[in-house]
UniProtKB/TrEMBL annotation:
Subunit structure: Homodimer.
The protein's name: UDP-glucose 4-epimerase
Enzyme class of the recorded protein, top EC level: isomerase
Residue ranges constituting the NAD(P)-binding domain according to the UniProt record: 4-311
Enzyme Commission number(s) of this protein: 5.1.3.2
Associated pathway: Carbohydrate metabolism; galactose metabolism
InterPro entries associated with the record: NAD(P)-bd_dom, NAD(P)-bd_dom_sf, UDP_G4E
Organism: Thermosipho melanesiensis (strain DSM 12029 / CIP 104789 / BI429)
Cofactor(s) needed: NAD(+)
Catalytic activity, reaction form: UDP-alpha-D-glucose = UDP-alpha-D-galactose
Family: Belongs to the NAD(P)-dependent epimerase/dehydratase family.
One BP term from GO: galactose metabolic process
Amino acid sequence: MAILVAGGAGYIGSHVCKMLHSKGYKVIVYDNLSHGYKEFAKWGEFIPGDISDVELLDNIFKHYHIDAVMHFCAYIEVGESVVDPQKYYENNVGNTIKLLKVMRKNNIDKFIFSSTAAVYGMPEKVPIKEDDKKDPINPYGKSKWMVEQMLEDYDKAYGLKSIRFRYFNAAGADEEGEIGEAHKPETHLIPLILDAAIGRRDSIKIFGTNYDTKDGTCIRDFVHVNDLADAHIKGLEYLLDGGKTDYFNLGSGEGYSVYEVIEAVKRVTKKNFKVVETDRRPGDPAYLIADSTKAKEKLGWEVKYSLDEIILTAWNWHRNM
Ligand code: UFG
């Protein structure tokens, strides 16, 4: 089986490539390296390229007889998406349409798509179930929701089978410490706290301490990147077995506050660092917690990593990067 992983040199994509490779799949890592790293593209064959390059994709699909495509290449910065929505719609939606078109041309009808908890916007209740209201509040979340809706239509009209995975807060790193989370720029909580623990930053800022939560800080659901990778393998196997188009939340079901995550980093790393309380960051929901019962029931997916294990694996990679 040959799988093309678009965005396979990025954070989540590279962990998926490593797992696919370990299970004996032929992996084509396709990445334009705008946000990914060449050093992360070591499981399978690396082909540099952009998902808008339909000619190159057409040649690859023909040459390698690709069975399924996984798609991880999207811009993910919420704040930037508000300032420059065109960048988000053009890449996350427009270029995804190009990728799907060249897949159809080559009769590739299995597609795994990275979506996000951002499709729910400000949820009315937690834990969030898949069929709860979708009301994304920024162009990033909207771009993901648009593709999700398109994929329903592509199945009805063209028989293209897809799985959409709505990630909650992806975190942690490969246990062998070969790959990890290194966004450019970094905006995510755990790597920023680790930078403070290492001394690469003076402090960690807490964005808002007056939310209606147990300690006033936001509550998030952290899920290990290898648990996400495992879901992708299960989703792929489900489609290869003739499974129907579907969509799943991927989270642990446990919520931790920003304070609790900071305390957990101090405990795991045995480092102390300065914590600064600042204003809220616009657009942050107070709670994001997944109900992932559907992924458990339909795919047999369960998380294996605790918050401390997420932090420990992230720390082991982060301090050596
Ligand atoms: N936070 C801080 N200080 C920081 C960075 C983050 O207090 O320096 C807080 C945020 O305000 C938030 C929590 O830590 O309350 C988590 O923030 P992240 O930026 O790590 O993650 P988000 O929950 O904002 O983002 C995640 C995904 C996005 C997705 C979003 C849905 O990474 O892709 O959930 O709202 F869009």
